[in-house]
Amino acid sequence: MTTLLKDRLADDAIQRIAEVLSASQVDFDPARFIQQAHTGLNSLELKERVRHIIAVLAQHLSDDFTQAAQVLQQVPNHWPTHNAQGDYGFAAWPLIDYVAVYGLHHPDIALQTLKILTPLFTAEFAIRPFLHQHFDLTYGYLQEWAIDENHHVRRLASEGCRPRLPWGQRVPYLMKNPDVIIAVLEQLKDDDSDYVRRSVANNLNDISKDYPETVVRLAQQWLAQPTAHRQAIIKHATRGLVKSGHADALAMLGYSQVFNLQNISFTLNKTEISMDETVQLSLSFLLLEPQNLVIDYALHLPRANGKKSVKVFKWKTALLAAGQHQLTQNYTFKLITTRRYYLGEHDFEVLVNGQSLGFRTIELI
């Protein structure tokens, strides 16, 4: 059975927090903390659990944030690097976000603390209030962190300034000024860590949703001196533009919007489905000449307001030879934290180089 994300902030995580704070603060009461943290926890969702544990932490750490920060800065010294029972990364989330809640009036020491804690999980959410309220100071730290020796810190420089960071507080100045973000990414485009470079790509993908031409121009500049790493960044960064059929992005990546497909057939193997069941998508076509093709499928899901949202999934990206092609793909309607299903008609759409080749409908019952 799939573990829900919220369950990563449960017994083991609370025990881990109690252990590391007991080792970092001499008067910390682990039994009382554990009891308070567990009270009402089971009824809470993931982010509610984060906020709940932060509120409990506030009863155990000093009211003087500078003293609390000294304790938090000791936490990595007592954090396990490996445990056979699993990854305790989520346990660090409330510790990190505590800094965002109680450290806003002490931005220098708070940001220094986030730098120390980010390798335990990520401080990408905690840094957002500082960008919102202390932009110039925080941006200066981002520029410094972009050349830090620790790849977790360098990733924070990019991830922290994503304009559309999932679950992250929006920062209007970043939304309106992509050039300040790009100045940070320029320092990271040739980073030796794939972890960092993927964040750069995700950041550019965010920017492309509001400033597609800016991202295409930047990609063309970076590809003027192509490396395998830059090419991988650009491919991942422009995935949204490819899915939307952006002509310049497709052309830059070698995908033409003119393709010679015949005898196209797109089908589903059922017309009705229930939760936890799987539908098979099938696509067949005749390709008259070899061509680079990006084949995706989109699911148009009904929402509570009666409208539909769209989620696009990768299917196949390759240089396909001339001839007949047959592709199949399974999709399972299963409960996940980030997607909610409603009963009714769901539409599957097949996309080739960003262009729609047709829809098929299935009813969730």
Q: What does this molecule look like?
A:
The structure is a single chain. The strands form two sheets. Strands 2-8-7-4-5 form a five-stranded mixed β-sheet, with no helix packed on it. The protein has a three-stranded antiparallel β-sheet with strand order 1-3-6, with no helix packed on it. The protein is globular, with a radius of gyration of 24 Å. The protein has 16 helices and eight strands. It is an alpha+beta fold. The mean pLDDT is 94. The chain has two domains: 248 residues, Alpha Horseshoe (Serine Threonine Protein Phosphatase 5, Tetratricopeptide repeat), CATH 1.25.40.290; 104 residues, Immunoglobulins (Immunoglobulin-like, Sandwich). The protein starts with 10 loop residues before the first helix and ends with a strand.
Key terms for this structure?
Serine Threonine Protein Phosphatase 5, Tetratricopeptide repeat, three-stranded antiparallel beta sheet, alpha+beta, Immunoglobulin-like, 365 residues, five-stranded mixed beta sheet, 16 helices
Fold topology:
Layout: H1 11-24, H2 30-38, H3 46-58, H4 65-78, H5 92-102, H6 107-117, H7 128-133, H8 135-145, H9 151-159, H10 172-176, H11 178-186, H12 194-208, H13 212-222, H14 228-237, H15 239-243, H16 247-252, E1 261-268, E2 272-273, E3 278-287, E4 291-302, E5 308-320, E6 323-332, E7 344-352, E8 355-364
Parallel strand pairs: 2-8
Antiparallel strand pairs: 1-3, 3-6, 4-5, 4-7, 7-8
Helix pairs in contact: 1-2, 1-4, 3-5, 4-6, 5-6, 6-8, 8-9, 9-12, 11-12, 12-13, 12-14
